[in-house]
Sequence to fold (326 residues):
Amino acid sequence: MDVKKRFLFLGPTGVGKSSLINVLCNDDVRKETMYGPAPVGSTTNGVTKNFTTYYDCNKYAYTDSIGFGDTRFTTDEIVTLIKQLIDNAVIGYNKIYLCVQYGRISIDIWRYLDLIISVFGDGGLKWCTIIFTHCNEENMNTETFLNINKDDEKIIELINKVENVIFGDLQSHSNQQVDSLLKDIRKRFLDSVKLDAMHSSDFYYFPKPNDDNSWLSSICNVVERFTQIKIPAEEILAYMKSITIIKLDITHYYDDCSICYDPMYHTNSVITTCGHVFHKKCIADWFYYRHTCPRCIEPCGLQQLLNWLPSQLSLKRPQEQTKRQK
Fold:
């Protein structure tokens, strides 16, 4: 099966982005599958580091992101975060998922919507699905939700702007009988997201700014509203001008190696059995001393092949650009 799709997950810390990515990667809703490969924490500050991409056996790539309102940020970390955001955005995504805790549409949610628009342009929301997590109302759907919020013009306008809305819950329980019932709810939630991902565009959506300065200024303004930290845009702008998009017919790019922080390509990288990608030499040196994953610290080995992985540079991207310019 030659499917190559990338999905970006955005949303506040604690809404369940990482847990959702785990059940998608594992295609399994048992409790024990909800805690890896993406690390899951119970703290208000979360555990996700900036942007991390995980791969499943269906050749899909899921990019987890830190909550932009996270209290751990320093100025240098914010600069790194924006650089990674731009790196990922210019390559493109087949779908953007905005995860929101059901019943808690806070001011941060509107900031995330502003972030999507600032990064991907006004058309970004049409490539976006909102996922309401922690929703234990089994019969909740878009029509019912709109009816409940019929007097809230802002909510109605939002729902009408995005491509799709999904409701669900990944709650688990220590009691086996109770969890058996919850497992059915988790399975329906997983199936809904899988169906949405399967029906996402075959083309990558990516920003096409007319001016780097204005684009970066728009992004920084939104991020500053999250963090209350003044961002040194000049450093990021210099970085943006140094970015070179690799020719699509030459190589596939797989993010930066988390061991040496240099770029990874299909010619020099391997994937672990827990779904993380590293340079061949870096992970070989690592395995000389230990047999755990540098990312998730779980015992692991190497998968035999890397060539099934969804490249972060889509061969369909030039067609999409031509298509949208018509």
Q: What stands out?
A: The two ends are 30 Å apart (CA to CA). Strands lie at 5-10, 51-55, 60-65, 95-101, 128-133, 164-167, 253-256, 263-265, 269-271, 277-279. The chain has two domains: 5-198, 254-308.
